[in-house]
Amino acid sequence: MQRILIVLSMFFTLANSAQDMEIALWDVEIPDSKKHSDYQEDQKIDGGILSRASKVTEPKVYAFFAKENTSKTAVIIFPGGGYGHLSMSKEGFKVAEWLASEGISAFVVKYRLPDDRIMKDKSIGPLQDAQRAVRLIRHNAEKWNLDSDKIGIMGFSAGGHLAATLSTHYDKKVYLNKIEESARPDFSILAYPVISLTSAITHEGSRRRLLGENPSDNLVTQFSNEFQVSENTPPTFLVHALDDHSVPVENTLNYFNALRENNIPTELHIYNDGGHGFGLAEHLPNNLWPKLLLEWLKTQN
């Protein structure tokens, strides 16, 4: 443990924006990665803040520590972007800042996006980063004033697919793990998530980028998380809008039904309006959902 903490400290850097530090996700070579000379990260910066990232090669975690985290709860955030880019500000940093202001420490993950050029198996590349993020933060829970049994995850759109995949595949062996802590989240928050990769209701871009043009039926089922829920899936909070024309609301409804069938504590909020990608919905009719989320977290202790 001491060696890992020492290595981690080498990657801590003070940031210019509101986060307390940024951390390299992997302290050694990224598992099953490949080198490609023309593949370099593309960033969009707005007002000095990273708003959008694509072609990620060096995944990172951005930490936002609550000043008074009396509950010692942490939320790990996976931004969306159809597995083609990451909405780092709207579905990452802004959400983390809000959580920290509410007394919950938050960690935004800039994860690798599936790509054959840098991954031996692109279908598990994002999941490798997601598992690693949970283990890394749980491993450092005491140091960062967190309860290792209160480590949850949050995902938006395709980031919601990654969060749901982690919730149902947390014990899948996708890399040689050197940190003993479990990758199972203690709770899951999914906002307008891509849940299914079945052709009827999926987001085609997310499916194609993750699984390729003609995936096998077995692979589609494996990553359609409504079919992967079990009695060990963590408690889940779900929010979606009926007029979402990018990710049909059936994704969330099917996952909700699977959670109910397995007696998993869950709460569902469906709004008539809001479309897709509403984030915290500060100026939309569904802007109450963050407050409802806080109340749900209290009920989950």
Give your account of this protein's structure.
- It is a single chain.
- The chain is built from eight helices and ten strands.
- The protein is 28% helix and 18% strand.
- The strands form two sheets. The chain has an eight-stranded mixed sheet, sandwiched between helices. Strands 2-3 form a two-stranded antiparallel ribbon.
- It starts with a helix and ends with a helix.
- The model is unreliable at 1-17 (pLDDT under 50).
- By secondary structure, the protein is an alpha/beta fold.
- It has one domain (2-299): Alpha/Beta hydrolase fold, catalytic domain (Rossmann fold, 3-Layer(aba) Sandwich), CATH 3.40.50.1820.
Overall mean pLDDT: 92
CATH third-level topology: Rossmann fold
Rg from C-alpha positions?
18 Å
- Work out the oligomeric state of the chains in this entry: single chain
Could you spell the SSE succession in H and E letters? HEEEEEHEHEHEHHEHEH
Q: Give the tally of structural domains.
A: 1
**What's the tally of helices?**
8
CATH class category label: Alpha Beta
**Helix residue percentage:** 25-40%
Number of strands: 10
Low-confidence stretches: 1-17
Name given to the CATH architecture = 3-Layer(aba) Sandwich
At the fourth level of CATH, the homologous superfamily is Alpha/Beta hydrolase fold, catalytic domain
Strand order of the largest sheet: 1-4-6-5-7-8-9-10
Shape: globular
Distance between the termini: 28 Å
Sketch the major β-sheet. 8 strands, mixed
Derived structural class: alpha/beta
Strand content: 15-25%
